[in-house]
């Protein structure tokens, strides 16, 4: 490491938690290599110190809240960072023979390199789980890892069980922060209210530039799904979802097929639904149309023969495939 700039993290060995965090971080990071996980270069047990690669652009927390008057992250950089976090989490959660749950995911633990590419750090309280131990308590009921609030899973507070879906909850809040540039407390509720009132743009961080509507809506939908109170309602972080996020920031550079757009919103559909008039709409948009007392087609102005909607699975798969293509 001669001539190389490194970062040194010194833990406090005077309590059992400091000792266990040191051992856990060495155990996990010495075996893992991923482009979006921080690289552990060495450890010094005598000094309770860990040596990492140096990342010059600080933490995502610093960048989002612009400490030292640094320039704001563009919307494209934010979408790419969300994709990079998802890639790292997917890697951890599919690790064999034990899944790895980070357990303390927050913007302070996401570092940025010279290219503003992100790397997750601080694995001191991560949990290694097998299918058999997945739902075994990790912490005493009613306790959470230090410093994790408000990013910690509400079900972790209630049950003491740390699962991959706990990381998904934290990831959802980080997505909402990337979109809004706002502090995390009460953020999911604020965003839900804005979306339900049709004021999506009012919560977007304008310092990131002009967000493409379908990009912002997709990320808002995903962030809110990840922030559901119960883990069973949160999405799984699949390779397909990671690929979609990886391509989201470049999708607007390609011409969008017209039949991918909702006739009402003129945006790419994420939940295409066929109505009685034979046209496909974004489900949320058509439900809003109907809830406002309308019973006529937005396309033909004729009265609907019925108000049932049918999911257009073929179109949804085609849109997902288009979004995932390089």
From TrEMBL:
- Show where the Protein kinase domain sits: 1-248
Write out the catalysed reaction: S-ubiquitinyl-[E2 ubiquitin-conjugating enzyme]-L-cysteine + [acceptor protein]-L-lysine = [E2 ubiquitin-conjugating enzyme]-L-cysteine + N(6)-ubiquitinyl-[acceptor protein]-L-lysine
Among the record's GO biological process terms, what is one?
A: protein ubiquitination
The record's CDD domains line, in alphabetical order, gives: RING-Ubox_WDSUB1-like
Q: Does the keyword Membrane apply?
A: no
Q: Which PROSITE patterns match?
A: PROTEIN_KINASE_DOM (PS50011), PROTEIN_KINASE_ST (PS00108), U_BOX (PS51698)
Which SUPFAM superfamilies does its entry note?
Protein kinase-like (PK-like), RING/U-box
**PANTHER family given for it?**
OS02G0152300 PROTEIN (PTHR45647), OS10G0100500 PROTEIN (PTHR45647:SF43)
Q: What is this protein called?
A: RING-type E3 ubiquitin transferase
Source organism phylogeny: Eukaryota, Viridiplantae, Streptophyta, Embryophyta, Tracheophyta
């Amino acid at each position: 490491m001669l001539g190389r700039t490194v970062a040194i993290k010194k833990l406090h060995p005077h309590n059992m938690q400091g000792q266990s965090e040191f051992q856990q971080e060495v155990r996990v990071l010495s075996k893992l290599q991923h482009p979006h996980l921080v690289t552990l270069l060495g450890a010094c047990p005598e000094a309770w110190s860990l040596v990492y690669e140096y990342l010059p652009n600080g933490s995502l927390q610093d960048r989002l809240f612009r400490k030292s008057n640094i320039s704001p992250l563009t919307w494209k950089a934010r979408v790419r960072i969300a994709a990079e976090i998802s890639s790292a989490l997917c890697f951890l959660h599919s690790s064999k023979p034990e899944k790895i749950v980070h357990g303390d995911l927050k913007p302070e633990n996401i570092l940025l390199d010279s290219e503003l590419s992100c790397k997750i750090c601080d694995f001191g309280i991560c949990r290694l789980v097998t299918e058999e131990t997945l739902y075994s308590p990790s912490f005493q009921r009613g306790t959470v890892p230090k410093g994790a609030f408000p990013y910690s899973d509400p079900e972790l507070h209630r049950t003491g069980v740390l699962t991959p879906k706990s990381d998904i909850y934290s990831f959802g809040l980080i997505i909402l922060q990337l979109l809004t540039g706002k502090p995390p407390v009460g953020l999911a509720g604020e965003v839900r209210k804005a979306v339900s009132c049709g004021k999506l743009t009012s919560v977007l961080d304008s310092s990131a530039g002009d967000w493409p509507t379908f990009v912002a809506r997709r990320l808002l939908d995903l962030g809110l799904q990840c922030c559901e109170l119960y883990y069973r309602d949160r999405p799984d972080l699949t390779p397909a979802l990671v690929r979609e996020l990886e391509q989201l920031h470049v999708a607007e550079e390609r011409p969008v097929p017209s039949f991918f757009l909702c006739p009402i919103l003129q945006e790419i559909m994420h939940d295409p639904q066929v109505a009685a008039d034979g046209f496909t709409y974004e489900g949320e948009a058509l439900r809003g149309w109907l809830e406002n007392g309308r019973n006529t087609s937005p396309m033909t102005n004729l009265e609907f023969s019925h108000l049932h909607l049918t999911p257009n699975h073929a179109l949804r798969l085609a849109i997902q495939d288009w979004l995932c293509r390089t």
